[in-house]
Design a protein that fits this description.
It contains 2 helices and no strands. The chain is mostly helical. The chain is elongated, with a radius of gyration of 45 Å.
């Protein structure tokens, strides 16, 4: 092989140049890592309040939804307590009256029930789209 003999470049000089370049590269890598770390910390610091605000707002919305649901359930329970007996009494009255009418005229009751069933069947058949 051909060796280049240059008087200003010897082994010691070459080693020193390589060592200096290596130190420079390490320094640049350290600076880049520090800059990236600093940028990441700054981004987190800037995003932190927005994330906190979003989490806080989400929590407030969840609490409001639960409060609204609880209020609605309480109103429903109050209505059932207040009107439950009236509804039950109305159902009992309707059942008693229906039983009395069936006892008084059983044939008419059966014919009315059959007619109501036929009308209901015809309506269901017409709306279901079946052509049987």
């Amino acid at each position: 092989m051909n060796e280049i003999n240059h008087p200003s470049v010897d082994n010691q000089n070459a080693s020193r140049i390589v060592r200096d370049e290596r130190q420079t590269a390490h320094g640049q890598i350290d600076q880049a890592a520090e800059k990236a770390s600093s940028s990441a910390h700054n981004a987190i610091d800037k995003a932190g309040p927005a994330v906190d605000k979003a989490v806080r707002r989400g929590g407030e919305m969840a609490h409001a939804a639960v409060d609204k649901l609880a209020t609605s359930a309480e109103r429903s329970a109050t209505w059932v307590r207040a009107n439950g007996e009236k509804v039950r009494a109305g159902v009992d009255t309707a059942r008693y009256q229906t039983a009395e009418r069936v006892r008084q005229d059983p044939i008419k009751s059966v014919l009315m029930a059959a007619a109501a069933g036929a009308v209901l069947y015809a309506l269901l058949h017409a709306f279901s789209g079946n052509d049987r």
